[in-house]
Amino acid sequence: MKYFDTHCHTNLEPLLANADSVIKECQESQIILNVVGADLESSVIAVEQANQYDYVYATIGIHPTEIKQDFDYESVFKQFDELLSDNNKHIIGIGETGFDFHYPGYLKELQEAFFIRHIEIAKKHRLPLVVHTRDATDDTIRVLKENAQGLKVIIHCFDGDTNDVVKFNELGVYYGIGGKITHKKSGYLVEALKLIPHDKLLIETDAPWLSPENKRREINTPKNVIDVQEFINKTLGTDLTSQVFENSIKLFGINKEN
Length: 258
Fold this sequence. Notes:
Elements: E1 3-8, H1 19-28, E2 31-36, H2 40-52, E3 56-60, H3 73-85, E4 91-100, H4 108-125, E5 129-134, H5 137-147, E6 153-155, H6 162-169, E7 174-177, H7 187-193, E8 201-203, H8 225-236, H9 241-252
Parallel strand pairs: 1-2, 2-3, 3-4, 4-5, 5-6, 6-7, 7-8
């Protein structure tokens, strides 16, 4: 395998309906997939896909925008523990979790409680933590500093500027770079990319969302991770394809031959 889409959603529509063909297309294109859960149902589907297909892995968690005031989180986390207690080697991460303050009515305290709970599970099972952060950089950094010492952390779909990179670099995080970096108004992200250590660089699609610029009118698919890698190589003036792939398999503890 040559590429690793470290964050996609073949477990959600509209990709779910065509998951078999989407995944097989990725296998033919030498792409490993990490299918990421946004809630209990999609996490279970991610694990099912990982168990069914070669070169597909799963991350389980609850997206911050899915958190509601009356949420029975104890029941959900109990089921997460059951999934993990099976010693399922196809589960390679916890998340996506974190903060999302973009839309009115967000529940900051509850999001933080869930964030910390995910961190505890990641520590318990010694798995990387996949973090979603939107309009919440300072709070994300605070929670990670206070709770995530010793964890491998991925800032999924990184969308920060150079100042954010400087802050996150102090924590030693990995950066998931997706199709947004190819968009015409993402010059700030291109500049931020130049400050990311090459050994902390990952690629992702967040498919079915955030298609690359040349495919903005299309549903995003994990195969477009190749476009992201090519854009990074061109921007930085060096071929980092092998470096980024090695970063990914090392981070998630995957034997690239299996």
